[in-house]
Amino acid sequence: MPGISTFLPLRSRDPETSLSVMFIKKYKSFNYICKMGKSRFLDSYSRLVKKARNRNASHLGLAIYEHACQSITTNGENEYTILAQNQCFGLVIEAQSSCDCIIAQMQTIAGTLHEYKILRNMAAVNKFLGIYYARVMELEQ
User: What average pLDDT does the structure give for the chain?
Assistant: First the structure.
């Protein structure tokens, strides 16, 4: 589904319940969306948005439908293609979950450093940059 991430970006926290993951698992290809028809897709999409508890994406249904109809064919109805897509998507979800776990552990470790607390109070330093700077300061000592 080329371009779907511009409408529905993958959220880092809990990717299994992310709207983008649920959307790709449900609709699988733009061909399926076009075959559904506009009103049927919009009804189905609004139910999916409610299920994912994402209020910000409720207005994107029409734009996604138009993008799907103007897009190229991405994959057919082949069951092997769909199985491969599901396997690859499972790997993306696992990688994202592992990344979140590593970042949480790094934040826990960095929180024990005195320098990290000082860095986090600075206006331009976010949690990821703070971890990096705290690690650099620890290595310099």
Answer: 78
